[in-house]
Structures are given as C-alpha cells and as structure tokens.
Amino acid sequence: MKNVRSKKYRGIQNLRILSQAVFFFLFFYLLLQTRFPEDDYIGRVEVFFHFDPLLALTTFLASHVFFASFLLALITLVLTFVWGRFFCGWICPLGTIHQFFAFIFKKTKLLKPKLPKDNHTIWKYYLLLVVLVGAVFSLNLVGILDPFSLLYRSFAVGFMPAITYTVNSFITILYQINWTSLGDALFQIFEMLDINSTFIQGFFLGTLFLGLILLNMTRERFWCRYLCPLGAFLGLAARWNILKLRVNQEKCIECGLCTRQCQTQANPFPNEDWKSSECDYCFTCSAICPTAAIQFPLRAKPESLKAIDLDRRRVLLTTFVGALAVPFFRLTPARIRASEKLIRPPGALPEEEFLRRCIKCGECMKVCPTNGLQPVISEAGPEGLWTPRLDMEIGYCEYYCSLCTQVCPTGAIQELTIEEKNKQIMGTAWVNRNRCIPWKFGNPCIVCEEHCPVSPKAIQLTKIEVTLKDGTVKTPLAPVIDLETCTGCGICENKCPVVDKPAIYVTSVGESRSERNQLLLDVIKSSEGIT
C-alpha cells in the first residue's frame, strides 16, 4: 500500500518540537539568569514554577496559605481542561529532555519500542495520591517528585557544577598549551555565568537524574509514563477536553505502529482503548500512520471517557500509606532541640511552616553568590531532605545580598530588602579557644574581626595573656563575640585561617525566626528570673 502519511500532522509535530525547544531554552535561560545581578533585584526568574498547578495545590494544602503568584497555574489548568494534557508534550522542559534522549536511544537501537502489555502507567496516580494525602496532613513531599523542582535541582546542584569543572579543566589545558586567547574567552564567559560549583550532594543528585534519563532505554519517556505526579494531575484534568483521537476504520490497516510508537502509552489503537488522560498530544501517531487514518478532530461538546482504572483497595492502601508516612518523616531529634548546623537562609519562615512550603527546588542555592546555601541531608530529618541550609565552611551570607529571599517560588523564604535582611538573625558565632590562634598560641590574628560586616562589629578584640609551655607570656588581641549584634552571617567562620576546622563557628541558636531556639532554655530563664 502506498504511504500517504498526513502532511498536516507532520507539520503540527514539527511545530510541537519547536515549542518544546523554545520552552526548554526559556527555562534554561532563566536558570542561567538566577545569579548575582548588577543591581539589588533579580526579577522573576522563578516564574516557571508558578505555572505548575500541582505545586500550587500541595503548597496550599500543606500550609493553608495561597501564594498569589500561583494564580498563573490556573492558566495551565484551564487550558488542560479544554485542550488536554498538552503541557506534557509541548511545554514541560523535563518531558522534553526525556523525549530527546528516548529519540537518541531509538536511533542508536538501545531502545526498541514494543507493544505495551502492562498497566504500570497507573503508578503515577498512586504517587500523586501519596503526595496529596501527605499535603493534607501538612507534609509537603511534592518537591521530591515534581518535574520542575527535580529538573532545576538536578541542574543547579549536579550537572552545572560538573560542566563547570569540566570547562575549567579544559581551560587549564588551553593555558598549558599556550592557547591563552581561547582560554581567556572561555574563562570570561563562565565567570559571567557565575555558576556555583561546590555542592555536598552534587554527585548523588546528578547520578539520580542520570539514572532517570537512562530509564528511557527501557520505555520511552519512562518518567512521564510511570512516575510523574504532575502528569497524573494533568491527566485527571484532561479527561473532558474537546480534542479527541479518531481512527478511520476504512483506512486503518491495523499495523499497530501508532500504539507501538506512542510515547506515553495512550494506546491509540483500537480507538476504544485510547486513554485521553495519558495522551500528551505529541501527534506522533497521526504523523507516522502510513494511511493517515488517525485524526484529532475538535468537538464543541467534550466527551466524558471512562474513568481511570484505579483499584479501590490500592487507593485505600495508598491513602493509608500517605497518612502513615507523616509521623515517620518527622522522626528527628531536631523537633526536640534544634540542630546546631541547621542554619536557614535569612527570611526563612519558622521551621514547621518553612517545611510546609519549601519545594526543594534549589532556586536559592543557585542564586547564592558565595555558594553557601547547600541541600540538607539529615539535619532537618527526612522531611527536610534537600531543603536549603547555610554551610559556612563553603560560603557565607553576603551582607549586601537578599537574592535568596527574592527567588523562592512558594514564599518559604519571605522576600526582604537588603536593609530588612540585615536585621535577620540566622544564628550566633562562637569562638573555640582551643583552636583560635591568639587564644591557643598567643600569636596575632584578627581575620574574623576584619571581615565582620556589621556595624558596630559583632567581633570585638580584647587583650589577653597567654602563657606558653616554656613560661613565655604573650599578650595578643583575641576575638570575643558580641551576642547583641551578631547576625550569624558566617563570614568569620568562612574566612578563618584555621583551614581544617575553623576556630570560629556559627550555630543556629538565637535565630530570629524561632522563639524556641534561643540561647537559654525556658527552664533556665525561669530559674534565673530572666524575662
């Protein structure tokens, strides 16, 4: 039979590829722009997150506060209701990456599409249910699985630092072989991009994302088919759309090519098996059909299709698991006494409210000009995994910067001006006299005092006497902390010349966001008559 593929749908397919490329490069552009700008304000670099209806819903359920910027998510939801799950096939940058690599794997024969014989697409609906049930009980897990958070975090913490390291190594080679002009050009470009290159979990998060990419060798768009909770949420909203698939039985030769090549296992053939909730309207089936038998006509009246086949017992079990997960995620000593190294960014809400809103996206970590914001491992318990904390041994809170407060997409970090931010207390600095050069050895050192940015300085110098083992007495100036003016910015710890473990360090005690994590326990305050 003569091949009469539809030119119209092949053209629409090319338009869809162009749309994917545009939105991916827009996302990547905003990612690169999330850096220290020339002025005090950075702009709406986080706007992509505000079109995500799942982030809007779970943040509201967990915190009982609606963040006004998420009104943009209504656009996505309304268009999905009318046009179907187009967002996954035309806009989502993570979906674009998965489709691109699935295409590469098919071209290299690492992936051989097969007729689907499983119903594992149902997994993502159960994952969505766990996320929603957890949010109802104020446990916000959406940031672990949401495609925007996953992609941004993986790029900011894993891939971009790896790319920076590779380029820096290449630049070093260029200088070694006297190709200084090219080396200088590359160096200036990457200096301008201002990419943070040191992250505690960079290897793990980068490897995790790479593993998700490699899953496309087993099924095309594996993540989108089986795991994406946003895809499941949009699939539920897409079941009443006006754009429906139709197979012309007179033209169809039942070759099965459309079903075998379907990216999301929507089963275009036979027509009665088509799953509107799984179709992302990539139009691959209609573009490759050898007889042009597949059409997507517009129907003014939406047709209600059969419900998604969720097993009632599994739904009940999943609901139970989602509720049961809440106390287990909160099994952490930090709920009794705050972790000394859990130093949140300035403007962070009180810990419980912060965890309800933070989606672990990594925006604040990407924008931090000193690389000081790092993903949490265990300091905040399982619930706080990948949320930001300030690690002073890597970076510090820049005094003339409030960027992390501007880019948070959910308000977990309140937006502050630089003046307001500098009044926030993140923690308190302490001097370890057993390691401090003046206190221990009697040698002069005023590095911490010199770098202290507040006025009057939170680090004061006082003359002390140090008796060495040979009986020699030295009288150096040594640092002491003024607890009234210290904001816990951590520059003193970061700049301390004692390289392995700084002699001055910052803990979270005294943070202004917490009434409980203060210098003295309530029982001590009461016994001493302190009010």
Fold and architecture overview:
The protein is mainly α. The protein has three domains: 7-30 and 46-295, no CATH class; 331-424, Alpha-Beta Plaits (2-Layer Sandwich); 428-507, no CATH class. The protein contains 23 helices and ten strands. It has helices spanning 7-33, 53-63, 73-83, 86-90, 93-107, 123-136, 142-145, 147-176, 180-193, 202-214, 222-226, 229-237, 257-261, 284-288, 312-329, 351-357, 363-367, 403-407, 418-421, 437-441, 447-451, 491-495, 522-527; strands at 246-247, 294-295, 373-375, 388-390, 428-431, 459-463, 466-467, 473-474, 477-481, 504-507. It has a two-stranded antiparallel sheet with strand order 1-2. A two-stranded antiparallel sheet has the order 3-4. It has a two-stranded antiparallel sheet with strand order 5-10. β7 and β8 form a beta hairpin. α1 packs across α5 (93-107), α2 runs parallel beside α6 and α8 (147-176) packs antiparallel against α9. The protein starts with 6 loop residues before the first helix and ends with a helix. Mean pLDDT is 90; it is low at 523-527.
